[in-house]
Amino acid sequence: MNRIVSFIFLFFFIQSLGLKGQEVLMIKEAVEIALENNYDIRLSKNDFLIAQQNVSYGNAGMLPSVTGNFTQNNSLQNSTQVQATGDTRSLNNAKNNNMNYGVSIGWTIFDGLGMFSRYDQLKELEKQGDFQFKQVVITRVSDVIATYYTLVEQQNLLNAIDSSIIISKERLEIAENRFSIGKVSRLEVLNVQVNLNTDESNRLRQADVVKNLKINLNSLLARDLLIDFVTVEEFEFDESLQLATLFDQASTQNLDLQIIAINKRIAELELKNVQANRYPTVRLNTGYNFSESESSLGFVSSSTGRGLTYGITASINIFDGFNQRRNERIAKIQVDNADLLIRQQKLLVETSIATAYQTYQTNIALVVLEEKNENIARQNLHITLEKYRIGSISTVEFRDAQENFINAVSRFNSAKLQAKLSEVAIKELIGQIAL
């Protein structure tokens, strides 16, 4: 048993040497890096900023428009004029110049209150952009957490394979010693060597899995893909989750539900906007203009003018081929659809939470069971190793115990990962991610 302790100590000592110089990446730190660097999060944030900029009175059509105008027309013509007296006047290359410039102002002061509906729509679109940004954040943070804990699981499995290799090397040493004194045949030594080679082959494959997961995590963090790091070895579960509480939280915090509720409000405002077309549109117009003209041939050789123009324009739709009625009916149907989508989405969310919660409870129970199995397999391996040293069991029996231990470690780590992933899925559904 002392030799077993020595091997375990040696294993962890070797592991610690391999970790020197590597970054220890904590889950909280990984999430912080993702929030700052992840491209999807940054793009979604910019979309939200665009929605914020669009909320303005001018974009809703509430403010007047001011336009500067300038026009210059010039011509050269061969002209002939016959006057009322019968006289004829002719001029080749007669010049005619006309120039107009000024400022005009137009302001829609009434459009059936449609401008107010449009402004409210812009504010709702801003809220929608905010919730969509939060949705992207939660989704990407969930991806980071899932990838991180998957890496923890696979790293722990790699550690177990490393410990198994150490034991296989000791088996090979024992088998060679026995062969040298004639207690076992060369066949047994070769079998042990094959087992060791299998373990080392498995380690290469598992190390490849770990490296690829690190690359994937670095990609989510939007940093150098070749940055090496180590993760924590253990993690905890939130065992306080209750189904009724989760339903209540989802009803107020689920982002899909909130986005669909905003879509209904936008549809209602669109209906008001369409209904506004039944009313007249009143627009004020004013401006100050300058004009100047020159003519080489004519009664007036030049003229100038300047002055204020003003007026009012009113228009109303009298008949448009029943399109107004059709548009209003469509808008009402869209409002009804938005209400149906809210109910449908609520059912989908509750269904997802219920199934995820059931999976979560099953995985928590599996964690407890597989932890016991791992402890039993570990004890069995230690006992088997001692029996193998004294020659009371065969190589095949020892190999079975060794493989049982690796399988038990794999199942235990897989159960922990699935429990954590189901926990993360539940919290994503209720719109909150806690580390």
Automatic annotation (TrEMBL):
Classification via InterPro entries: OMP_efflux, TolC-like
Cell compartments where the protein resides: Cell outer membrane
Top-rank lineage group of the source organism: Bacteria
Swiss-Prot/TrEMBL keywords: Cell outer membrane, Membrane, Transmembrane, Transmembrane beta strand, Transport
SUPFAM superfamilies: Outer membrane efflux proteins (OEP)
Organism of origin: Sphingobacterium alkalisoli
A single Gene Ontology CC term: cell outer membrane
MF term (GO), any: efflux transmembrane transporter activity
Protein name stated in the entry: TolC family protein
Coarse class of the protein's main subcellular location: membrane
Family: Belongs to the outer membrane factor (OMF) (TC 1.B.17) family.
Gene3D superfamilies reported for this sequence: Outer membrane efflux proteins (OEP)
